[in-house]
Amino acid sequence: MCGEDVVDWRPWRSASTLGGDRPSKLALERAVSSGLGRQDVLPFPGDDESAGMLRLLIVGINPSPWTAAVNAPFARPGNRFWASLARAGITEYEVDASRGLSRRDERMLAERGIGITNLVSRPTARASELTPVELRAGGADLIERVKILRPRAIAILGVTAFRVAFSAPKAGAGYHPSDTMPGWPPTTQVWVLPNPSGLNAHETIASLAEKWSDVWSATGAEPEDLIHDVASGSSDGHAGLTRKHADPAQH
Fold first, then answer.
1. How many Cα neighbours within 13 Å face the side chain of 192?
2. For 87-120, how does the pLDDT look when each residue is reduced to its tens digit (9 = 90+)?
3. May I ask the CATH class of domain 37-242?
């Protein structure tokens, strides 16, 4: 784990209120009308407690109704998130979050130094339903949280949302030097990856896994090394280091 082990880890997240069932249509409608999102996935409940323990903080745009209903990130069947992480070797196995995260899943993520949060907590069927005001507020809050959590790297999933949240209209996918992000902690690498939703026809599990491999490998590199790679073109054309691949379909 990044910084220290998890010998004192204890389950703290709430289990799905559906008792291990997949959500019904009514449960999905209730999840949206509640306006409530899902709990973050972190080693411990508070940011201060989890500070310095994350190798990678993954940031989704906002919860889907399915995710909110079962209190688990990227839970909707058809989302390529968990499959691509497993193929990239970031997780030890492919998580099935469709009925919620198990305690085994939560501990594995803690031991791997992986945290998961969202830019915006309000659940919607599509990320395009969020307002620019919500996204910009979420971006500002995220910067402050990262200053406390101090992850080795952060991966924000969704190029369009990233552009709005951080007022970067020309940003593409890949690595972004932190000095191009006002207020961003210089010790945390900033990556932008495509939305893994099944609605994004421009990506597959294999293509997403390749990008995740770039991110995971780079968490062992110093930020200045990555800046040199981007500037010199010495990354051998890998999407994660060249910032040449935009994602025209986010949702």
1. 28
2. 999 999 999 999 999 999 999 999 999 999 999 9
3. alpha beta
